[in-house]
Amino acid sequence: MGKCVESAEVIAYEDLGTEAVRRLVVKELPVIVAIDSMGNDMYTEGRKQYATK
C-alpha cells in the first residue's frame, strides 16, 4: 500500500500521533470491493449460495 500513497494529510486529532485521522490520496491501489452501495456483502451472499441444506 505504501507505494500507492501519493500524499497523507492529518485532518483531525493531530495530538494522537499515529492514531490521528488522515486523508490519504492513493493511485492504482489494487482492492476487492466486497460490499456494494446497497449494503450487500459478497462474502455473506457467497456462503448462502453454497451452503448445504
TrEMBL record:
Care to name a GO molecular-function term for this sequence?
Answer: hydro-lyase activity
Task: Give all residue intervals belonging to the Fe-S hydro-lyase tartrate dehydratase beta-type catalytic domain.
Answer: 3-45
InterPro entries membership? Fe-S_hydro-lyase_TtdB-typ_cat, Fe-S_hydroAse_TtdB_cat_sf
The record's keywords, sorted A to Z, are: Lyase
Its family?
Belongs to the class-I fumarase family.
- From the Swiss-Prot or TrEMBL record, give the protein name: Fumarate hydratase
Q: What is the lineage of its organism?
A: Bacteria, Pseudomonadati, Bacteroidota, Bacteroidia, Bacteroidales
